[in-house]
Amino acid sequence: MNATMTAPAALAAAKVLADLLADPDALWPGGRPDGWRAWPQSLAGGAAGIALLHVERARTGHGDWDTAHRWLTEAVRGEVSGAVNANVFFGVPALAFLLHRANSATGRYTRVLARLDAATTALTRTRLAQAHLRLDRGERPPMEEFDLIQGLSGLGAHHLSRYGDAEITEEILAYLVRLTEPLPDHGGLPPWWMNVGTTGALHPDYSGGHGNLGVAHGISAALAVMSQALLRGLDVPGLTGAVERVCAWTDRWRQGDDLCPWWPGLIDPEQVASGCVDADLHPRASWCYGASGTARAQQLAGLALGDPARVRTAETAVLATLRDPAQLDRLPEIGLCHGMAGLLHASWRMATGTGNAHIAAELPHLADRLLTALHRPGQDPELLDGAAGAALALHTLGTNHTPAPYWDTFLALA
Question: For the whole model, what pTM was predicted?
C-alpha cells in the first residue's frame, strides 16, 4: 500500500469494524460468557471502550451520534464504581473521560458529566493523600499508586487533558515530582522502584522487586504526563528536574546503538548489580512495555526539555522498529496494548508531532499488515486488545485529525 492509498483504505476498514460493533445487543445477543456485560464501565474491555470508538467517529463526521449514544447508554448501565481504586480505565474516571469526549462535541450529557467530574476529583485527592502518606513514611510505591492503568499517572493524564492548569492537575504534578525524589536508604535504586512483581503483587521471581520502564505500569507514563505538562506551559516547582531525573535513569538503561536504540521493559536487581541487560530481553514493540510507548515518552521529554538529541533517539528507535521485519513479526496481534494498532498509532503520533517524514513513510506498510491481520477470525471487539482499538488507530490515520483534547490521552500518547 502506498501513501496515497493509505487514508481511504484505513477509513474503509475502520468503518467496517465500526459497523460490526454498532449494536450492543447484536454483538453478544446472549451476553458474553465471561461476564463482559457486568463490566460496561471498562474502557479497556467493556462498553465504554467501544463507545469511545463511536464517539470519535461521530466527532469527525464519519459516524452517527445515535450509535454513539447507544453505546454511551450501555457504558453507564448499572452501578458505577467510584471506589478509591477506580481509575482512568475503569469506573468514574473512565466515564468522565468518555463523556467529556462526547460533551465537548455536542454539549450533551452536561449534568451527568458534572457529577462524574466531581467524583473523579474527589477520589483523585483521596489517592494523592494516600500517596503522600506513603512518601512521608519513606516506603517504596505500590504499582497501583503511580502507574497509568490503575494509578495517578493515568488520573494525571486525564486531569491535564480535561482541565489544563487547574489546581487538581498541579496537585498531581507535584506528587509526580515528589515520586522522583530519592527515598531514604534507596540503595542506589530509583524512588519509583517497586518491591513487587510485574502484576503488582509480591512474587518469588521478583524477590527484590523491579524498576519498570513501561508506559502501562512504569515510569514512562509519569515521564509522558510531566513532559506534556511542561509543553503546555505548566509551571510546577521541580517539574523540569523531575523529568531530567527520569531521563537520566532511562538513559542509563538504554540499549542498542545509535542506529537501533531500545529500552528494556523492566530492570531487576541482578541487572542492577551487573550493569548489563541481555540483548534477548529486547521487548516487543508494544505500547505497554515496548517502543510504542517508551519511545513516545522519550520524544515528549526531549521536546519538553528542548533536547533535540533525545527526540532523535526516540524517533530513531521507532523508525528502526518499523523497518525491521523481525520486530514487526513479533507483533502479530491487532490491539492497542500488545499489537500493531498501538505501534501504528504511537508512530503516527510521533510523526505528526515533529513532522518526521521518515516515520510517516513507513506507516502505510504497517497499516497494510494490520488490515491483513483484521481478516483473521475470532478477534475480540474490545478497545485495548481488540477490534475497537484497531478501528480507532485506523480511523485516526485515515482522518489525520488531531483536535485537543485527544482520545489517546488514556494511553499517555498525547
Answer: 0.96
